[in-house]
Amino acid sequence: MDISIPNRRQAQIVAWLQENDTLTIKELVARLNVSAMTVHRDLDKLAADGLVRKVHGGAKLVTAEAASGETTVSPSCVMCNTAVSPRTVFTITLDDGRKETACCAHCGILRLSQLDGVGSALTPDFIYGRMVNVFRAWFVVGSDAQLCCVPSTLCFARNNDAQKFQQGFHGEVMDFTAVQQYLIQSHMN
Ligand SMILES: [Zn+2]
Ligand SMILES: [Zn+2]
User: Which domains can be identified in the chain, with CATH numbers?
Assistant: First the structure.
């Protein structure tokens, strides 16, 4: 594995936040056995990627609810109008700060093809559940695992995970550009 130490630490922080909601800097320093400055640097990096939010003296995970604004009702998909599950939620932030939510990568990627001025687009890694930048992610399209729209479009941060998943559940591994073209075409037919 070529994952560097800071990356591994940051992945660990995200994993802990998925279990704990909020962690203080002090707790992270103790758990990771690094300096507070290192923890701050890791959190700044994760915050820049849109994965965590720094709160007073600690950090919180950017959850599906937080990412889609302070709304109390769970949003419905901007494309197909079905209820959005946190397992597959796809969040688009536009350059002007507006946010849109799609039910899964299938609808989200189609929606991206209709939009200009997209700032970021995030969806959970299918295995690890942490939010990933969809433009750098890998997708398994048309596998046997159907959670939402068909063809099923599942997101993976690492190509290797996508390949392994594909071996068991079939479908095809694609990068963002390929999957977008594929979905646009399958919708026109
Ligand atoms: Zn949808
Ligand atoms: Zn969907």
Answer: 5-62 (1.10.10.10), 90-188 (no CATH)
